[in-house]
Automatic annotation (TrEMBL):
The keyword Magnesium applies. It comes from Candidatus Harrisonbacteria bacterium CG10_big_fil_rev_8_21_14_0_10_40_38. It is found in: Cytoplasm. One of its GO terms (cellular component) is cytoplasm. Residues 428-542 form the Toprim domain. Keywords: ATP-binding, Cytoplasm, DNA-binding, Isomerase, Magnesium, Metal-binding, Nucleotide-binding, Topoisomerase. Signal peptide: none annotated. This is DNA gyrase subunit B. Binds two Mg(2+) per subunit. The magnesium ions form salt bridges with both the protein and the DNA. Can also accept other divalent metal cations, such as Mn(2+) or Ca(2+). NCBIfam families: gyrB, PRK05644.1, PRK14939.1. PANTHER family: DNA GYRASE SUBUNIT B, MITOCHONDRIAL, DNA GYRASE/TOPOISOMERASE SUBUNIT B. Few gyrases are as efficient as E.coli at forming negative supercoils. Not all organisms have 2 type II topoisomerases; in organisms with a single type II topoisomerase this enzyme also has to decatenate newly replicated chromosomes. Mg(2+) 2 binds at D507, D509. Residues 582-601 are annotated as: Disordered. The gene is gyrB. The lineage of its organism: Bacteria, Candidatus Harrisoniibacteriota.
Length: 682
């Protein structure tokens, strides 16, 4: 007994000074890369490029660089070159190493923490290029400055050579070539489109900077080049290229206010939604912040003042709200300031109060002048805002009717909803199903404790073409709003969401895809927080059932179908071989359906192929409840796709193109993508 106790004591883990590990240099980055670049997936991989490019952009914003070149090279290498001042190479007094080595191998080392080197900078934490060095299997820095060209190489953050002069140069600049570490990243292949989209935006935000992208990975290099002297005005035209503008002139201002750069551009279109983009030192702030608050305040105040002074608003009217004046608005706000204060690790919101004051002052003054000089545009803006006021009042009445009905009936849920018995949102799922037939199968096959079914009759209203007052009259949308429990518009409250998994389950055909798109449009425009919180999913019903006797596979595409046929054919041959052995030994053999199946080609139309039965499901209603449960609803076996918004700007544009009023952009989109369509039902 004593021996056992001693052994237990020996196995007990120790916790003393020797168990405290100190990670030196760039070890923390390699140990926990996600803390520095967000992830080790595709997003984190591309973040390496952004970190290096950000340094070059900072040189451009400081007025020292005009050209940036990004080259995608074979073996997943990337080279980023700029014509800035070049990273210093002399010995650093504090580290006793060259400044170049210090910057590349030391966290929080750079010229952005004090002094006058960078008055405006996006990379304020000083971890950028050192993190790239740490997470690269190989990196080489080439610096041109002080009449010479200097070079140093690194492996996984460790210098492999000393800084050495390799030539002379009359120009200045920095070139960083790196190869991501395949032991860190799950994928090391760079996506050209993602890079082009990101660097195009940076070119818009940095007026006059020339950015080149060269993809040299294939036999023929692919080249992209950007340079926009128009700044945000050019950016706005690019974002609004698929929309019909209400104005003859877009609003644009670029001014310095209290040592802060303020650049704003906006235009109105004939849509109902507003699109707002904001940036601080070229960093995208998706949650806005003080700079966006300043813009909204100036816009609302100035338009109200103009409307009243020109007798376009009656004295007894309450005036425009912020939502009224932002209907159909597309705006970009960019500020460049010395000490940006971001809220949260992701820099999603700008917290500097002085940014609000600066933007409000600049926009208020410039907008007043714009309205006076462009009276026809001013009148169109006021007329659209007046229409928004009427729609708001009508929508409020319609919404109140919907919500009041729910309250008066004790929050009675729609009659067509087959609710689950669980009252825990975390455990509850809502399946939005197409049609009564599929709804019937889903209701019979579900887990009644956790799964609710809401069948929709036909195609719901396209909310991209309708205001909220018309939307809430639609019976199907009204039923959905009441079922999910969050209310809508300004009354939306995600804490009241009744199901933490909302699953769109439509047929795998053209009609099903259309209904799915209509529902996605509804959620994107009016329930975006549900998407952002990770509560919206798309079910993946199988396209085929492949069966040989008692063995079968449910598969989701043509390739999987062919693989399943091969697997079942191989299984059939194994069984036949085993039966032959038993027969040879005189043993009794059980004859299966698969072995008795007549081998007929699929072309005969009876769905049989070499003893394999292939059934294609055109709709969920073709499945019996058990099949629907096994393939699409069983949490242990189903496939769900989480709906996420990767690029909100592009998502917004595509919804406008595909679902909006204007036909021409949709026609062009269809023509451009016609050849890439697969599995189109005719």
């Amino acid at each position: 007994m004593a021996e056992k106790d001693e052994k237990k004591a020996e196995k007990k883990p120790s916790y003393s000074a020797k168990d405290i590990y100190v990670l030196e240099g760039l070890e923390p980055v390699r140990k926990r890369p996600g803390m520095y670049i967000g992830s080790t997936g595709v997003d984190g991989l591309h973040h390496l490029i952004w970190e290096v490019v950000d340094n070059s952009i900072d040189e451009a914003m400081a007025g020292h660089a005009k050209h940036i070149r990004v080259e995608l090279l074979p073996d997943n290498k990337v080279a980023v070159t700029d014509d800035g001042r070049g990273i210093p190479v002399e010995v650093h007094a504090q580290t006793k190493k060259s400044a170049l080595e210090t910057v590349l191998t030391t966290l929080h080392a750079g010229g952005k923490f004090g002094g006058e080197s960078y008055k405006v900078s996006g990379g304020l934490h000083g971890v950028g290029v050192s993190v790239v060095c740490a997470l690269s299997v190989w990196l080489r820095a080439e610096v041109s400055r002080d009449g010479g060209v200097y070079e140093q190489e690194y492996e996984r953050g460790v210098p492999k050579t000393k800084v050495k002069k390799i030539g002379s140069s009359k120009s200045t600049g920095t070139k960083i070539i790196f190869q991501p570490d395949h032991t860190i990243f799950s994928e090391t292949k760079f996506d050209l489109k993602r890079i082009v989209d990101h660097l195009r935006r940076q070119a818009f935000l940095t007026k006059g900077i020339a950015i080149e992208i060269i993809d040299s990975r294939g036999e023929v290099p692919v080249y992209h080049g950007f340079c926009f002297d128009g700044g945000l005005a050019s950016f706005l035209r690019y974002l609004s290229r698929s929309e019909k503008s209400l104005l003859d002139n877009l609003f644009y201002v670029d001014k310095q206010q209290n040592d802060m750069g303020v650049e704003v551009a906006f235009v109105y279109n004939d849509e109902y939604e507003s699109k707002e983009l904001s940036f601080a030192n070229n960093i995208y702030t998706p949650d806005g912040g003080m700079h966006m608050t300043g813009f909204r305040s100036a816009l609302t105040r100035t338009l109200n003042e103009y409307a009243r002074s020109n007798n376009l608003l009656k004295k007894e009217d309450d005036g425009f709200t912020g939502d009224d004046v932002r209907e159909g608005l597309t705006v970009i706000v960019s500020v460049k300031l010395r000490e940006p204060q971001f809220e949260g690790q992701t820099k999603a919101r700008l917290g500097n109060t002085e940014a609000r004051t600066a933007v409000e002052s600049v926009v208020g003054e410039s907008l007043k002048d714009f309205l006076e000089r462009n009276s026809s545009d001013a009148r169109r803006i006021i007329e659209k805002s007046l229409l928004a006021v009427k729609a708001r009042k009508a929508a409020k009445a319609a919404k109140d009717m919907v919500l009041r009905k729910g309250v008066l009936e004790g929050l009675t849920l729609p009659g067509k909803l087959a609710d689950c018995t669980s009252r825990s949102p975390e455990d509850s799922e809502l399946f939005i199903v197409e049609g009564d037939s599929a709804g019937g199968s889903a209701k019979s096959g579900r887990d009644r404790r956790t799964q609710a079914i809401l069948p929709l009759k036909g195609k719901i209203l396209n909310v991209e073409k309708s205001r909220i007052d018309k939307m809430l009259i639609n019976k199907e949308i009204k039923a959905l709003v009441v079922a999910i429990g969050t209310a809508i518009a300004e009354s939306f409250d995600i804490s009241k969401l009744r199901y933490h998994k909302i699953i769109i389950m439509t047929d795998a055909d053209v009609d099903g895809a259309h209904i799915r798109t209509l529902l996605l449009t509804l959620f994107y425009r009016y329930f975006r927080e549900i998407i952002d919180a990770g509560h919206l999913y798309i079910a993946q019903p199988p396209l085929f059932k492949v069966q040989a006797g008692k063995s079968f596979r449910y598969v989701f595409n043509e390739g999987a179908k062919d693989k399943a046929i091969d697997e079942l054919q191989a299984l059939k041959k194994e069984r036949q071989a085993a039966s032959a052995k038993k027969k040879a030994k005189g043993e009794e053999v059980e004859v299966t359906d698969a072995e008795n199946t007549e081998e007929v080609s699929l072309e005969t139309g009876d769905g049989r192929m070499k003893g394999i039965f292939v059934q294609r499901y055109k709709g969920l209603g073709e499945m019996n409840p058990q099949q629907l449960w096994e393939t699409t609803m069983d949490p242990e076996a189903r496939v769900l796709k989480l709906v996420e918004v990767g690029d909100a700007t592009e998502a917004d544009r595509l919804f406008s193109v595909l679902m909006g009023e204007t036909v021409e952009p949709r026609k062009k989109f269809i023509q451009a993508h016609a050849l890439s369509v697969k599995n189109l039902d005719i």
